[in-house]
Amino acid sequence: MTKEIHPHRLGLIYAFVALFLWGIHGPAGRFLALQGVNMYVVTALRFWLGAFVFFLYTLRGGHLRKVRFKERLRLVLLIAFVGVALNSLFYHLTLIYLPGTLVMILENLSPVFVLLFSFLLERVKPRLVELLSLVLSLSGVLLIVLGKEHFQNLHPLFYFGIFLGILTGMTFGVYVYFSAVLVRPLRGRPEDIVAFLMKIFTITAVLMSPLLLIPGRWPQSFWEWFWLIEMGIFQSGAAYILWNYALSLLPTNQTSILFLMTILFTTVNEILFLHLELNKFLVAGGLLIMAGGYFLTRKRKRWLAERGAL
Asked: Which of 12, 51, 297, 300 sits CB 3.0–4.6 Å from 205 for a disulfide?
């Protein structure tokens, strides 16, 4: 008899696979930016590809009827415009000025905003384990940022890139917080989750379509098209499906802190494919980030065990 995976553990599996896929995102986007590809075009095309993935997934399951565009339209538009469209635009523009690892580091400021939204809008006080894990993770972020200062060939508009990166973190915090409001009631209803994603990404793709008219170089070589298509299918498609499944199974604050693990995956991929030079700051920062995720998960398992949930 096959032992059923506990929902919390299953949520962690979904989260870590999504984080690994997003770890490819930064190096792939940075590669396109370094090649001089128009990042406005990259941003728009990858979301049309992602929307197409959701369409095929929904069509195959026969659940197109579940895509209700008018349901909670104001909140959906907020998530699509701020949490997805602006987040992706800021992310891709930041890749022009900063390495992918540093861009992902700044996007991982999202837990700060999620905790802030939880407190301001719901008066939810963060638990001690969340605060300690956040301190560990942000300490790792700080160390990696300090390490980045030792890298050569930084863009002259480095600090403008930092500003865009902070906006990237804030807008992703909007997505994590408000999408969880809509996804958590769908727990155990995967078809409804995918329908939700298709609705969000279709609206986002439409909102981003004018970006295709901005002058600039489109992808030309095989590898430029390969990485653009890969980003559309996996980072804008599969990773979001898995991440939203995780959001429906895990606490919002926990998933937002676990998102910090994308820094580690991004750093490894940049080392392998873009020849990022490893230094003591990256090693120490990565270990702190992993420690934060470990203690968060360990504390959660103990909490469930005490209540007979494991």
From this structure: 51
